[in-house]
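The aim of this short unit is practical: by the end, you should be able to scan a pair of folded records and say something sensible about each. We start with the first protein, listed as its amino acid sequence and then its structure tokens.
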Amino acid sequence: MPQLTLASTSRYRKALLEKLGLPFDCVAPEIDEDRRPGETPAALVQRLAEAKARAVAAQGRSGLIIGSDQVAVGAGVLLGKPGSVERAIEQLRSLSGREVVFHTGLCLLNTLTDQCQVLDETYKVRFRALDEARIRRYVERDRPLDCAGAFKSEGLGIVLFESLHGRDPNSLIGLPLIALTELLEAEGIPLPPA
């Protein structure tokens, strides 16, 4: 089996990839993640996922390299990681009673063939009507400061939702495993592993 590398140091993506039972390394891609003028969320995450994989390949890594990137779009605004308690509260306030679409870009780069499979996995979250007290209690408890949309769906964030719609709930955490399984199998990697 070719060497597998995750072009990320995200603890969330690492934990998800560990579920597949394949040996892999994590390498920081160090790329410019700024959005280009007029770039759609889908185009942005696909470009960044591929750029991350290629940046790790340029560091001398070979084999199969996984790149991933995620943005959330709510009320027509691109939502990133809040970074602070107050910004997390602001994000959740703006999402109360609304639908948010998560775009997760995924790239699997085979450095031996230069074959690059890239896709955008979408997932929709409808938030409940959230009052100030619930928002503050949630942010204080789950501390979602490094999560796009200011919640952790794998944690207490589930109490904020009215409904979830999509193919793979792992994409909300940052790595769509169903799609990744398909890409790995297209490269001849049998899952589950032997």
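Turning to the second protein, read its sequence before its tokens, just as you did above.
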Amino acid sequence: MKLLFISDIHGSLYYTKKALEVYKKEAADYIVLLGDVLYHGARNPLPVEYDPKEVALLLNEYADKIIAVKGNCDSEVDEMVLDFPIKATYSIVLQEGRRLFLTHGHIYNKDNLPKLSKGDVLIYGHTHIPKTEKKGDVFVINPGSITLPKENNPNTYGVLEKDVFEIKDLEGNVYKEITLL
């Protein structure tokens, strides 16, 4: 199973379209949205083509292929316009014999790990900074932000297939990579 990870869209129709182009190009089975889907947040500038209503309509076309977690900028109003669940602050997916702990990152992150077992993976967004690392026996990954990257990083997304997690720029070039073994 191939998973595409998108974090921190923040209501940008432009980057939502880019993310869906990537989804098709990568031929992923599912899209994992790591929170902050529709609202830009009080600390962020307005993103390119800010249009949360259209973002919701476009993502709803892929509702059966989306796994989403709630970010700190997501609200009850967002839940009302999205056709996929986004109520939980985390989700757990089983993949290749390991747990993927999916969250936005404002609660659980590299500095506040949930209780995980050897070989499990924490995947979060929130910081807009792509990272791949191993902390003890646990892998910690942040695919960065598709819309508002920070610290001079490019706009990025993540792809997990089998034991390899790649963080790529919008052209599909591998920016960071980690093998989950």
